[in-house]
Please model this.
Amino acid sequence: MQKIEHIGIAVKDIEESNKLFAKLLNTKHYKMEEVESEGVITSFFQIGDVKIELLQATKDSSSIHKFIEKKGEGVHHIAFAVDDVNTELERLKSEGFEAIHQEAKDGADGKVIAFLHPKSTNRVLTEICSDKNA
Ligand code: ZN
Model:
């Protein structure tokens, strides 16, 4: 793992939260992007070399919708930058971590990503990601 790449925060209304986080962080989001396969719309803020990713569900089957139903809005996941998602995924699985994705898939913001199941990581939903063209 190289560093924390971003922190994901589940929100109900991304337009409202864009305004809130712009005030909190004193900077505007630099992009919004829909990830249709995950049923989410995302927006990104850059804070130093770490990003904040806001996530709003676009459909009821989205994991963000389920998360907010269960726990309300708030911190959803921590994403770590890695050299190669598939290589790191194999290492983590060999260490006994449970993967949600068995191989890297396309994520937002030019990344390939994979998630580990929170029940194997002290209930911290953990994402690993690398640049799509790395
Ligand atoms: Zn993320």
Q: What stands out?
A: The chain is about 25% helix and 40% strand. Residues 6, 8, 53, 77, 79, 127 surround zinc ion (CB under 6 Å).
